[in-house]
Amino acid sequence: MRYILLNKPYEVLTQFTDEHGRATLKDFVxxxxxxxxxxxxxxxxxxxxxxxxxxxxxxxxxxxxKVPKTYWAQVEGTVTDxxxxxxxxxVPIKEGLTAPGEAVExxxxxxxxxxxxxxxxxxxxxxxxxxxxxxxxxxxxVRKMCAAVGLPCLRLVRAAIGPLELVGLQPGKWRELTAAExxxxxxxxxxxxxx
Length: 195
Prior knowledge:
Blueprint: E1 3-8, E2 35-36, E3 45-51, H1 54-61, E4 69-76, H2 81-89, E5 92-93, E6 96-97, E7 102-106, E8 127-134, H3 141-148, E9 153-161, E10 164-165, E11 174-176, H4 179-189
Parallel strand pairs: 3-9
Antiparallel strand pairs: 1-3, 1-11, 2-3, 4-8, 4-9, 5-6, 7-8, 9-10
């Protein structure tokens, strides 16, 4: 079994082929027969797991197993207590009411790589950072949640899946998970141990 942690760059598809010639996982991970655990949008960045372990892939992706995913969202505007409370209660989006999320304002993440192309800077509109943890996983959910509370998302980085954090990897770089990391993911998702 293979278990890979990739720092997915901005504007890379979470698949291995594209009929329109856009960048895909194949451009970064030359490992056959591994598949992404869930999705990370074309315009989102950060931690993406890939594996050929179908049971663990399912358990980490399916919201019913409630494995939390942590995101750093750079948003347009000033974060208010009311916006944080709404995110924590759940917000109505097109697909329905989201489950409550954990949300806190945070400083810009230390050591965060520059995005290419950079975020458009607007002197008249402040930007803030949020850390949001969810386990639901609707399509583009964090972006829609932020927009629903009046904080359009400028940049979105997945920082963690469960206790597994994106540390020390630049965009486009990957590494194999350790046996201890795989065991931890199995434990939090309720997946059976493989021997």
